[in-house]
Amino acid sequence: xxxxxxxxxxxxxxxxxxxxxxxAATEADVVCLQETRAERAQLAPEVIAPEGWHVVLxxxxxxxxxxxxxxxxxxxEAVRVGFGAAEFDGAGRYVEADLGRxxxxxxxxxxxxxxxxxxxxxxxxxxAFLPYLLRRRAEVEAQGRALVVCGDWNIAHRExxxxxxxxxxxxxxxLPEERAWLSRVFDxxxxxxxxxxxxxxREGPYSWWSYRGRAFDNDAGWRIDYQVATPGVAGVAxxxxxxxxxxxxxxxxxxxxxxxxxxx
Length: 264
Known about the structure:
Blueprint: E1 2-7, H1 11-17, H2 19-25, E2 30-34, H3 45-48, E3 54-58, E4 68-72, E5 78-81, E6 94-99, E7 102-108, H4 117-142, E8 146-152, H5 176-187, E9 192-193, H6 194-198, E10 225-229, H7 231-234, E11 237-242, E12 258-262
Parallel strand pairs: 1-2, 7-8
Antiparallel strand pairs: 1-12, 2-4, 3-4, 5-6, 6-7, 8-10, 9-10, 11-12
Helix pairs in contact: 4-5
């Protein structure tokens, strides 16, 4: 099984810039999208019903915001939108599908901004989401199954995950308390950062670059897009890569797909 995850920064815009062509060429079995910002009726047939794919769209109740989606080659056996938190279940932040022995989720964790309600929302989301991860791991493993939570986690965990980490220590996405929370996901809940496990010594590989300045050209990015998996499936991950565009003008999002091949 090969899984890709990418924040598309608006699915309608990405479709016009190259997402459709990328989807037609990918070898992935599952594609997780975040920040789709679209309703089903707003999407062209080649986006919402591409040949060979089953599409699960979970838009936000607030139109034009957030939104997550799953594209799967196999028809999901079950789909869950949200994770049981009333504030966020209609916010287009989480969708999970059962595909045989593995469940795959698309997550868009709030981005936050220090000193604003956006940061408070992010903190509330994290507080609600960790208990779900603990509970869900226990459930899937009791069934002899696995869970992979893919998406834009909006936190760079280590200094190696952020090019300009020194200048971002007081900014949302690299705050000590955010990084400590992500450590709890790995240490307390027992999930595995699959890309970091496969590439333990590498800087990055970054998956998001600001459109401002020459961040992309200089590879001054952040690694905030993760595949976070229960240990059983993480242990059979064979290869990870970030599908970084060859040039700035060939990008169809400010994020790049993060792709992992599992011998599952």
